[in-house]
Amino acid sequence: MNDHDHADTLQGASGVSASPAAAPTLVLGSQYLRTLSIDVQNTPDIYRDISGEPHIGMTVDVTARQLPGGHPNFEVTLVIRAQGLDAPQSATHNARTLYELQIAYAGLFALSGLVTQADVEPLLLVNAPGYLFPSARMILLNTIREAGFPVGNIQPINFHDLWQSRRTQQK
Q1: CA spacing 20 to 30 A to 164: which of 43, 92, 112, 146?
Q2: Is 96 inside any structural domain?
């Protein structure tokens, strides 16, 4: 089990400091690629008969963990698992898997202002991945293109809805 197996988790978050009377703010530090892997199925035969633009199925996880001492205080990781599927050849055949891709893109974040415990989770699991997603999406789409597949677009993700959905599942 790796540190990306759970979605929308928050480890730590104790001892959040507060500045007097300032609104809670998320401060972005460095962003970086933690891991990237792609598995192209049945090469080179898979490239002979791709029918149009593959469908991309995705799952998205967000994790946050408090870092020991100093600033920035938190590492937030956006994990995207994508699967490229070719259209089924006939009604009796399932869609073929062309590739499977996983990216873990992370950023260092600090919290400033008057931060309550109730503010921490939405700041880290809703706002922070919004900063990480554009770069993660660009890396994901470039990797698919470099692997030799047609690339479409991936729409922005509503991280608030994702967070609310995961909170409902945990209850």
Answers
A1: 112
A2: yes
Q: Is residue 28 part of a domain?
A: yes
pLDDT in tens, 76-124: 999 999 999 987 665 656 788 999 999 999 999 998 888 788 888 899 9
* Dist CA 37 CA 39 (whole Å): 7
> CATH number for the domain including 44?
3.10.420.10
d(CA 37, CA 34): 10
**What is the pLDDT of the chain when averaged over all its residues?**
83
Judge whether 10 lies within some domain.
Answer: no
Domain count, the chain: 1
Residue 12 counted as domain residue: no
Q: The domain containing residue 74 runs over which residues?
A: 24-168
